Amino acid sequence: MTETEPHLESSNPSSLGVEPGLRIEPGRCIRCAAAASMAPTLFSLGSRGNQVLKQPETARERALARSASLLCPVRAILFEERGRE
Question: Taking Cα atoms as reference points, which of 26, 65, 32, 24 lies closest to residue 82?
Answer without folding.
Answer: 65
